[in-house]
Design a protein that fits this description.
Largest sheet: 8 strands, mixed
CATH architecture of the largest domain: 3-Layer(aba) Sandwich
CATH superfamily of the largest domain: NAD(P)-binding Rossmann-like Domain
CATH class of the largest domain: Alpha Beta
Number of strands: 8
Radius of gyration: 21 Å
Number of helices: 12
Strand order of the largest sheet: 3-2-1-4-5-6-7-8
Helix content: 55-70%
CATH topology of the largest domain: Rossmann fold
Order of helices and strands: EHEHEHEHEHEEHEHHHHHH
């Protein structure tokens, strides 16, 4: 993790995702606290960031950008246009600009700024807070290979990351891994309910459901086997697992999950188009 060492990083916004990124960078050793400056509109939040991670803080976004080589926009989507306009004069090709604003396509940022910038869009998920995010990144036309490598290093500090050459696939990422933890929480909750129905305590049922999910996911990641192959290793002829799987198939679990990802992807596309129009209007305001 040497690429980020010595790079000055500004994280604009110190909410949950901004903090998760800073914590990952500092705790993994990918970046030094003295090279990171965080901004936020709440002074008490900045005090928390200073005391927890030893980073610099500032209430002034343009000032933070001026001294940074990498600028991460970790603000809420509805505030993104305002913060971009506020910092626009400080943005140029000398800086890598990374946006994690959900639902804000690169086209929206480009329509607002009308500048050649080294842009990266990232879609992490809530599991960044426990260093297990599934993140996808895509690059604008002026981003360089080394910019992608820097972004990969940043987001690998809070989980695992993939690079997409096709920007339009970020909506599918939002539908799958961005929204995916919500689906998994419902599945775990349902499994725990089933355990309670069968006589287990709520505490034990929830623990066993979550640990089962964690173990299954770890097997997939470490063995790299197809999930169908691993499923076949669990099911024995006439056994309990195949009886349960039959019920899942009868209930349409696969179709329901596919439909959920599709619905979330289409909603992401709608929100993206709305953001493009909003940013275009903000450019003339």
């Amino acid at each position: 993790m040497a690429a980020l060492q010595g790079k000055k990083i500004a994280c604009l916004g110190s909410g949950n995702m901004g903090e998760a990124l800073v914590a990952g960078l500092v705790q993994s050793g990918a970046a030094s606290p003295q090279d990171i400056v965080c901004t936020d509109i709440r002074e008490e939040r900045l005090e928390e960031m200073r005391s927890r991670y030893g980073v610099h803080t500032a209430a002034d976004n343009p000032g933070a950008v001026a001294s940074a080589e990498i600028v991460i926009y970790a603000v809420k989507p509805q505030l993104m246009a305002e913060v971009l306009k506020e910092t626009a004069d400080r943005l140029d090709l000398s800086r890598l600009v990374i946006s994690i604003a959900a639902g804000v396509p690169l086209r929206a940022i480009e329509s607002l700024l009308h500048k050649e910038l080294r842009l990266i869009r990232a879609m992490p998920n809530i599991a960044a807070s426990v260093k297990e995010s599934a993140t996808a990144i895509s690059a604008g036309k002026h981003a360089r290979r080394e910019d992608v490598d820097l972004a990969l290093e940043i987001f690998n500090s809070v989980g695992r990351t993939v690079f997409l050459r096709e920007n339009y696939l970020m909506d599918a990422i939002t539908g799958l891994s961005g929204s995916g933890p919500a689906y998994i929480f419902i599945i775990v909750d349902a499994l725990a309910d089933a355990g309670v129905k069968m006589g287990l305590s709520r505490k034990d049922a929830q623990f066993l459901a979550a640990q089962t999910l964690l173990g299954a996911a770890k097997m997939l990641m470490e063995t790299r086997e197809h999930p169908g192959q691993l499923k076949d290793r669990v099911t024995s002829p006439g056994g309990t697992a195949i009886a349960g799987i039959h019920t899942l198939e009868k209930g349409g679990l696969r179709t329901t999950l596919i439909n959920a990802v599709e619905a979330a992807t289409l909603r992401s596309k709608e929100l993206g188009e709305t953001m493009i129009r909003y940013f275009a209007e903000a450019n003339h305001a």
